[in-house]
Amino acid sequence: MSVNELFTKLTRVWVPDPDDVWKAAEITRDYKEGEAVLHLQLEDGTPLEYQVGPKANALPFLRNPDILVGENDLTALSYLHEPAVLHNLRVRFLESNNIYTYCGIVLVAINPYEQLQIYGEEVITAYSGQNMGDMDPHIFAVAEEAYKQMARDEKNQSIIVSGESGAGKTVSAKYAMRYFATVGGSSSDANVEEKVLASNPIMEAIGNAKTTRNDNSSRFGKYIQIGFSRHYHIIGANMRTYLLEKSRVVFQVSSSHCSAPCCRSTTAA
């Protein structure tokens, strides 16, 4: 399909915005390849002449049809790009209060910064034995898939939890371990989840630091191993650290000593 067929009148697009990151707009005049201006109208009715070309902006991203907005799997979208992903996540979070969304086998989570009642034993029971796409996206669905494949294939499984500081990685790992502890049981009365997590305060004391984004940001990676018996019961766990930063903030420089921007925050040793 040529550019002329895609960017026609009434086609909806996304344009970058310094405040809202992306704004929705509609093409008001058919675009012909090679033209330097794309005529748009923002959702509030404001006309916009969007400069395009080699020395200006590239053609804007196309919007997905309304029927696809709010999909629980991002791979179901017709157009998969930054504004489409952000808009879909925003709609699911604000309109449906869904913090989880799939992107294929990847689970995308939005930190709600509050406790949600979606991690109880009744929810664990509901996800136990289900296939990953049978129910709404959830960290328990990912944990169940790993547990099921471990039991079926008798091979080690890994769940990678990644994200920026404050995204909720530690809490997500906690809920995954809670799922394993519930469905896998334990060979003793010891709560493996609590024992593994009880080491966090000690590790955070020597491995965390305050950043501009997070007052208690982990400055290291954690690799948690959970051991299962032949009957798929938890028999133990251990935690290893990696990527520990070697430079640490040891004291704060007085602002009276130096007015340079680099000396107004902290000094690393």
UniProtKB/TrEMBL annotation:
Question: InterPro entries this protein is in?
Answer: Kinesin_motor_dom_sf (IPR036961), Myosin_head_motor_dom-like (IPR001609), P-loop_NTPase (IPR027417)
Domain of life assignment: Eukaryota
- Keywords from the UniProt entry: Actin-binding, ATP-binding, Motor protein, Myosin, Nucleotide-binding
GO annotations of cellular component type = cytoplasm; membrane; myosin complex
PROSITE patterns tied to this protein: MYOSIN_MOTOR
Q: Which GO terms describe its molecular function?
A: actin filament binding; ATP binding; microfilament motor activity
Q: Which residues form the Myosin motor domain?
A: 69-269
Provide the residue positions that the database annotates as binding ATP. Answer: G163, E164, S165, G166, A167, G168, K169, T170
BP-aspect Gene Ontology terms: actin filament organization
* Keyword Nucleotide-binding set for record: yes
The UniProt family comment states: Belongs to the TRAFAC class myosin-kinesin ATPase superfamily. Myosin family.
Protein name per UniProt: Myosin motor domain-containing protein
The protein's organism comes out as: Xiphophorus couchianus
